[in-house]
């Protein structure tokens, strides 16, 4: 979601095997205007990510999610095409990562629901999908 990234772990593994990887920017129909491809496949690859806000990112990308219209998700989506600010941190990290990595971590009820269960459920789903992509690759 940061800088309009629309790829997922399966795309990363396909890229490592020699596939084409679409890159931002995208046109009005959602077609990538740039892409990249390795000259030869990699010998091995691993996909890693910061799991701290898997749930929040999933909510903010899904218009059917209850928290999609929250102030936090709206701000993050509005900043997708904006390079990191002067402090070098993407807005998604500032909005979600900093509160979660604080000594008293918080999840926004407007995004995750009053008990945080919306984000925990989505976090688990994203993690299962990441594992499935690794197994398939």
Largest sheet properties: 2 strands, antiparallel
- Overall domain count: 2
- The number of distinct helices, counting runs of at least 4 residues, comes to 6
Enumerate the spans where pLDDT stays under 50 for 5 or more consecutive residues: none
Order of helices and strands: HEEHHHHH
Summed over residues and divided by their number, the pLDDT gives a mean of 86
Helix content: 40-55%
The rough form would be described as globular
Q: Provide the structure class.
A: mainly alpha
Strand content: 5-15%
CA-based gyration radius = 16 Å
**How are the strands ordered across the major sheet?**
1-2
What is the CA–CA distance across the termini? 23 Å
Number of DSSP E strands = 2
Record the SSE blueprint.
Elements: H1 9-16, E1 21-26, E2 32-36, H2 54-61, H3 71-78, H4 91-101, H5 109-112, H6 117-136
Brief write-up:
By secondary structure, the chain is mainly α.
Any overview of this molecule?
Helix 2 (54-61) packs across helix 3 (71-78) and helix 2 (54-61) packs across helix 6. This protein has two domains: 2-36, no CATH class; 51-136, no CATH class. The relative contact order is 0.19. It has a two-stranded antiparallel ribbon. Strand 1 (21-26) and strand 2 form a beta hairpin. The chain is mainly alpha-helical. It is built from six helices and two strands. The longest helix is centred in the C-terminal third of the chain and has 20 residues, at 117-136. The mean pLDDT is 86. It has helices spanning 9-16, 54-61, 71-78, 91-101, 109-112, 117-136; strands spanning 21-26, 32-36.
